[in-house]
From TrEMBL:
Record keywords: Transcription, Transcription regulation
Matching InterPro entries: ANTAR (IPR005561), GAF (IPR003018), GAF-like_dom_sf (IPR029016), GAF_ANTAR (IPR012074), WH-like_DNA-bd_sf (IPR036388)
Domain ANTAR: 178-239
Keyword set includes Transcription: yes
Organism: Amycolatopsis dongchuanensis
Transcription found in the keyword field: yes
Taxonomic lineage: Bacteria, Bacillati, Actinomycetota, Actinomycetes, Pseudonocardiales
Membrane-crossing segments per the record: none
Descriptive protein name: GAF and ANTAR domain-containing protein
Length: 245
């Protein structure tokens, strides 16, 4: 198990350096990737450095279809998370649902979560700390910390995790919004390209058959429905065939 605050060289100042370095490392990851999985994995790896009592970390994401472990520092954490998903409850799910941090000693949680505590004990985990993670609608969950030993995590551990989660949430929200913006631009570009090829196909039909714009559009629509193919694909095929001829 990692050293406590009092055992760290240089005391609090040394640990603050660890926090700063961890956040800088996360910032570097954000600068080079927009992959949510890579960002969540970086959060897991850095939070173990940040919180003195943490030996493993994972991130639970909760969606309409259920909860999953999106990132982790150890396979054991996945097994313990899965025990909570199977049980339908546990500290990580409780944190995600209530929006409140959950700090427990495994030995005192048997009545609440018997399956979770059994699996945690089997793997030597005696302490658990979960902080809610709310990034956007459909993107929520918890940052989960596991400790080998029954220390139950200290109040300081909880405060550090809450502060770190606040920063991480801000980073992930910005990244999520940037990803959404890029996706919207991509869809807009595709829509513009589709519109352009449809207009081109209409122009060819109008010139070839001496018909109105509405009539040309109706011809394309009828063919699209008859072949059960999207209108822009029908238009692109028609333009290609016309150009070839």
């Amino acid at each position: 198990m990692q050293a406590t605050m009092s055992e760290l060289p240089g005391g609090s100042s040394a640990h603050l350096d660890e926090v700063r370095q961890a956040l800088e490392a996360l910032s570097d990851t954000v600068a080079v990737t927009d992959d949510p999985g890579a960002l969540l994995q970086a959060v897991c790896e850095q939070v173990v450095r940040v919180v003195p009592g943490a030996d493993m970390a994972s991130i639970t994401l909760v969606r309409a279809e259920g909860a999953t472990t999106a990132a982790t520092t150890h396979d054991v954490a996945v097994k313990i998370d899965s025990a909570q998903y199977d049980e339908g409850d546990g500290p990580c799910l409780r944190a995600a649902r209530t929006g409140e941090i959950v700090r427990v000693e495994i030995d005192t949680a048997r009545q609440l979560w018997p399956h979770f505590t059994t699996v945690a004990r089997e793997h030597g985990v005696g302490s658990y700390l979960a902080s809610p993670l709310a990034v956007a609608e459909g993107f929520s969950g918890a940052i989960n910390l596991f400790g080998f030993g029954g220390h139950g995590f200290l109040e300081l551990d909880q405060q550090i995790l809450e502060l770190y989660t606040l920063v991480v949430t801000t980073v992930l929200r910005l990244s999520h919004r940037a990803t959404q913006a890029r996706e919207q631009v991509r869809h807009l570009r595709i829509a513009m390209q589709s519109r352009a090829v449809i207009e081109q196909a209409k122009g060819i039909l109008m010139a070839a058959h001496r018909i109105t714009e509405d009539e040309a559009f109706q011809m394309l629509t009828t063919r699209s429905q008859h072949e059960n193919v999207k209108l822009n694909i029908i238009a692109a095929r028609f333009v290609e065939d016309s150009t070839r001829r």
